[in-house]
Specification:
alpha/beta, Rossmann fold, Alpha-Beta Plaits, 16 helices, 25% strand
Amino acid sequence: MRVLIVGAGEVGSSIAGSLADSHEVVVVDKDASRVESLQYDCDVLGVTGDGADLSVLGEADVAAADIAIAVTDSEETNLTVCATVKTASDAFTIARVERTNYRDTWQSNKGAFGVDFLVCTNVLTSQTIARIVGLPSAHDVSTFADGRVEMAAFNVSASSPIAGQTVAEADRFDELTFVAVVPTDTDAPEIASGETVIKAGARVVVVGTPSAVRAFAQTLCDEPTPSRAEDAVVIGGSKTGELTLGLLADRGVSSRIVEIDDARARELATNVPSATVLSHDGTDPEFLTREHVQDADVVVATLGSDERSLLAALLAKRVGADRAIAVVDQPRFVELFEAVGVDVAVNPREVTAEEITRFTRERRAENVAIIGSRGAEILEVEIDTESVFAGRTITDGVDELPAGVVVGAITRGDELVTPRGDTEVRVGDHLVVFVQADAIEDVTVRL
């Protein structure tokens, strides 16, 4: 498949890196140094110029593109690019925007702006935060099989009861499968075997029923924790903060939001009446203590500034909050935020790149989750007669595939089947499968 990407910033570069091994990728950007860097790093074709210019798109051979992805830092440019692509190509167009008004217009009239699939950064970020808030102690959460199967990644602290245990010792749940362990010194997930030792600081990735995943989450803690968040404090009335409030309300989470600007605070009170709005400086530790922020199950910092979001999250932790999530605009700061005490740092650019990459994968899979920056994936696929698993056991099917594959769950109609080596897979079953990055292309065509 030929993929045209307009915009070689953080989002475009991430998408190009994810797709270059399995597709013919062409990248267009005004910045020649960015284009040259991507050509060298990812082995893609590069064109320097304005992606909204038809002559530049012609140089990129837009007529041959199967998918065109517009992810520059200007949402108006992205919409213009898609509209221009449609004049010269039958390519499926994808655009990135931030403002929800563009998303609302597109949703009410699919195909508006010449866009076939539109991703809204603010919406995706708030959805990611809401999923993480919904599972205390989780670093990442995705759902499969219409919510009957859940994937979750957890950081293992030095005080956790499972630190130092093997996977076999930690796996005490019938409806749960350990699929990967991410060591402390790398972001590359490793296949979890029974003998794998879960070291302090590592991240474990599990797949199972939501109830089993939540029960496992309790074993990670050295003292009992709530199975679900009931009270959240959002610091910063950004659009992401507002959208997060709405999603938390839908999940039955009681929420408060702190916004320093009086006019914006009044607007939030009107837009999200279920939330308590506090007009004050969210980086004032005395105020945080006075409002009992330390008693909340989670604090979310969405101040629109990396520095202020970091300060707010760390102050919340300092006054006694158990868990803090911060929105981080610059991807290079994600590891720094988590290293200095923020529990989860959510980067909108990474979230957007993952969603677009996921969409391209979903042309072969029912659902996709990306694990870590190295591109390992969890896929949900329906088994047909051509699959290597059809009518065979899990062990026999996995033996036909490259190393780096673990079957995490099977759904059969309304039934959930916990996979074991001798479990026979039937045509029509849905498999949730962990796949290492270097095996994805081979595995997806054979599943």
